[in-house]
Design a protein that fits this description.
Length: 198
């Protein structure tokens, strides 16, 4: 990469970082304007259009980068030899962090309005997320951390139930006097039920 390409990549990265930071506090996508992104990133609007072509294309690239990095980081974590419980706790903590980093309603809005992004997330789920989750379950079965009475499909179903309602669970935790204790209790119930013991 020559000097010009390095400078160009630096500008592009700055625009994407600025856009991601603005997404974290955005109330809706329509309120985000190229003019505001350009001002915040200290570049011209023309520069943004030259690099990305449109606001939609910029937002798509920013969200794709975020998702791909999250998956890479998660896969690296799985390769560190953690227990099943640690892996599940890590998944839940990642969900909690992602809700803080990007409002879930905003991602949903983007997916509804952007077919490319919707297709991207569906592909990522099928090609990356689902196989990684199956790997966790399979390793848990092999290590004896998941009961032999429970099938991989049943574990996946339970995890999906939790993930589908995690936004609601986080909202309930936020209203609790002991937010962290509330979430720890949810993790405990995931592994041991309401009557089980660790």
């Amino acid at each position: 990469m020559n000097g010009f390409e390095k400078r160009a990549q630096g500008i592009k990265n700055k625009i994407k970082q600025t856009t991601f930071a603005m997404l974290q506090t955005a109330l809706d996508l329509k309120g985000m304007r190229i003019a505001d992104i350009a001002k915040e990133a200290r570049v011209s609007q023309v520069t943004i259009y030259n690099y990305f072509g449109s606001k939609e294309a910029l937002l798509t690239e920013v969200i794709k980068d975020y998702a791909e990095k999250s998956i890479r980081d998660f896969e690296a974590y799985l390769n560190e030899g953690h227990s099943l419980k640690e892996k599940i706790e890590h998944i839940l903590s990642l969900e909690k962090a992602s809700y803080k980093e990007l409002p879930p309603g905003l991602i949903k809005e983007m997916m509804e309005e952007n077919r490319e992004l919707d297709r991207f997330f569906r592909e990522q789920y099928q090609e990356k997320t689902l196989p990684l989750t199956m790997r966790i379950v399979q390793e848990g079965k092999e290590s004896g951390e998941i009961s032999e009475k429970v099938s991989a499909e049943q574990v996946m179903a339970l995890m999906q139930l939790y993930m589908n309602q995690y936004e609601l669970v986080l909202g309930m935790a936020a209203q609790s006097e002991d937010r962290e204790g509330f979430l720890e209790g949810i993790v405990h119930m995931f592994f041991y039920g309401i009557c089980g013991k660790p």
